[in-house]
Amino acid sequence: MASGVDSSGLDNLAFDRVNDHLKGKACKTSETDGDRNKPTYCVTDVPPWYLCIFLAIQHYLTAFGGIISIPLILSEGLCLQHDSLTQSQLINNIFFVSGLCTILQVIFGVRLPILQGGTFALVTPAMALLSMPDWECPAWTKNASLVNTSSPVFIEVWQTRMRTLQGSIMVASLLQVLVGFSGLIGFLMRFIGPLTIAPTVSLIGLSLYDSAGVKAGSHWGISAMTTVLIILFSQYLRRIPIPVPAYNKIKKLHVSKFFLFQIMPILLGIAVSWLVCYLLTIYDVLPSDPDEYGYLARTDVKGNVVSEASWFTFTYPGKWGLPTVSLAGVVGIIAGIICSMAESVGDYHACARLSGAPPPPKHAINRGIGVEGVGSLLAGAFGTGNGTTSFSENVAALGITRVGSRTVILLSGFVMILMGILGKIGAIFTTIPTPVIGGMFMIMFGVIGAAGISNLQSTDMNSSRNIFIFGFSMFSALVIPNWIMKNPTFLDTGVKEVDQVLQILLTTHMFVGGFLGFFLDNTIPGTKRERGLLAWENVYLQDSSSSLETDEVYDLPFGITSHLQSQSWARYIPFCPHKGHRSQSEDNHVSQSPESEYSTRI
Question: Which residues does the annotated region (Disordered) include (predicted)?
Fold first, then answer.
C-alpha cells in the first residue's frame, strides 16, 4: 500500500490528545496549522496509556488486511485450500513473528515507529517456486471430498513444500543481513532509481490478478459489494467523523470526533460483507450444494474450524520439520528481498519526517535493514512461508494520527504477538467467505500496482527514454512469464538446477520487469533530473521543521551507545553509532537511499 499520507485527517482523535500529557522532549513544530510535519507526539514522547492502547490496536488493524492476505494466498501453492485449521495456524504464525520483529526493529533496529509485517515482494517468487512441475499440488488435494487433513500423506504433501519455502527464505535472508550490517545498502541504492522500483512494485500487484479473479469470481455480487464498501469507507466517508463520548481533565465529559472510516476501511468492508454472507447463509439464500455457483459465499463452508482450533497456540522454529533448501527458490527470494530493501529505506525517511525525527543516519539505516534480514530469517524459521518488511500503510497512519511515538508501535508489536498466540483469532479469520477476500484483493492489489507507478512522478515522463524503459519493462514482464508458464519444457539446459533457477526467475513478473528497468536505466544515457534521481535527492535533503534537534533518537538503548562511543573501533562498524557520525543532514546523500514518499510496502 502506498505510504503517501493525508495529514489533514485526524486533528482530534477519540481521546482528544492534549499537550499537557506530553512526556520527554517536545517537538519543534511549524506555525502552519496544515503542516504535515507537525506531530503531536514525537518519536521519543510517551502518550497517555489509554491513547497508547488505542493507537496500538489501530496500527494492528491497519496492517490486518495486508498480513492475513499473505497466508491465504500461499495456502493455494501449499495445497492447503481445504485445510482451514492449518491456514489459521499460518495466520497465527505470521502475526506472532510480525509482532516479534516489530519489537526488535523499534528497540535495536532503525529505532523509528515503524511496524514490521509480511511482504508481497516474497509472495510472487514463492508462488513461482510452488507452481513448478516438481511442486505442483496433486489433483486430489484440490477436491475437498478427497482431502483428509489429518492423514500423514496430506500432511507430508504440504509440509514438504513449506519446509522448502522456509529454507529458501532463511538462506536468502542472510543476504539482507549481510547488506544491512556491512553497510552495502548505500552502495546498492546508487543504482536503484524510480525506473527500477516502479515496474518492480507495480508488477507485484498486477501479477496477482489471477488469484484475485478466482476468489472474486466465486460470487461476483458479494465480491463487488465488498469492493464498493471499502471504496465507500476509504474514499467517500473518510473525512466524516463519528461522534463519540470522551473525557479528559480539561474538557470533562464531552463529545469528540472519531474518524472511524479513515482508520479501518478494509476491516469495516470485510465485516459488513461477512455479516451479509452470514445472514444469507442462515436463511438459506445461498446454495448449499458445493457444485453450485455461490456456494463459497456461505459462512459455514469451513465447517467447525473455530471450535476445533485451540484457544492458545504457540509457534516455534522448526514447527513443520527441518527446513530444506532449493537453489532456485533462494535465487527467486533474493530478487524479492532486494526490492523489499529498497522500499524499506524510503519508508525509514518518510517515517522519520512524520514522527518528528531527524533524517536517519547511515548506522541506523544499516541496522534497520540488518534487523529486517534477521526478521526474515526468523519468519522462515518459524514457518510463516514469508519474510518481514516495513509496512508503509502504518507509516501513512503516522501522518493521519499525528502520533509518531515509538512506544505506540512497540505496544503494537505486543498486540500482534498476543493475536498470534490466540488460536481462535486465526481460525475466525479463515472463515471469511472466499468472495469477500476476492473483493478485498481487488482493492489491495490494484493499489499496490498504482503505488508502484506513482514512483514515476519524480522522473521526466515527457522523455522518450523513460517512456521506453518503463513501457518495455512492464510489457516484457507480462509477456515472458506468461509464455514460459505455457511452455515449461522450453528451458532445458541439461542441468536441472539451472533449469529451475531460470524457470523461477523468468516466471516472476517483478524480477523480469525490475531487472530490465534496472539494466536499461543504468546503461541508456540520461541526466539525474531525467531519471528522477535529482528530485529524490531534493526530497531526501530537505529540512524538517518539526524534527528533534539531535539524532540521539537513533542511539541504541540500555547504555549500549555510551559504551560504544568510548571505543575507538566502533567508528569502523557500519551499524554502530559513534560521536560525530553526522553533524548535518547533508551528510545523507541520495547515493545512500533515494527516499520515496510514494513507495508501497509489499
Answer: 580-602
CA distance 414 to 317: 19
Cell of 33: 496549522
Beta strands in 64-165 (DSSP E): 116-117
CB 356 within 8 A of CB 113: no
Which candidate, 342, 91, 365, places its Cα nearest to that of 204?
342
Render pLDDT for 194-243 as a digit per residue (tens, 0 to 9).
Answer: 898 889 888 888 888 888 898 899 999 999 999 999 899 888 988 888 88
Label residues 180-208 b or e (16+ Cβ within 10 Å = b): bbebbbbebbeebbbbbbbbbbbbbbbbb
Q: Taking a C-beta distance cutoff of 8 angstroms, is the pair 179, 185 a contact?
A: yes
Contacts of 235 (CB under 8 A, 6+ apart): none
pLDDT per position as a tens digit, 109-142? 999 999 999 888 898 889 888 888 888 888 888 8
User: Integer distance in angstroms from the first to the last C-alpha of the chain?
Assistant: 7
By CB neighbour count within 10 A (0-12 exposed, 13-18 middle, 19+ buried), where does 69 fall?
A: buried
* Nearest C-alpha neighbor of 270 from the set 240, 299, 236, 309: 299
Residues in a beta bridge with 498:
none
- Of 528, 474, 460, 467, nearest to 197 (Cα)? 474
Q: d(Cα 49, Cα 15) in Å, to the nearest integer?
A: 11
Find the length of the chain.
602
Closest by CA position to 175, among listed 370, 344, 385, 325: 370
Residue with cell 489509554: 50
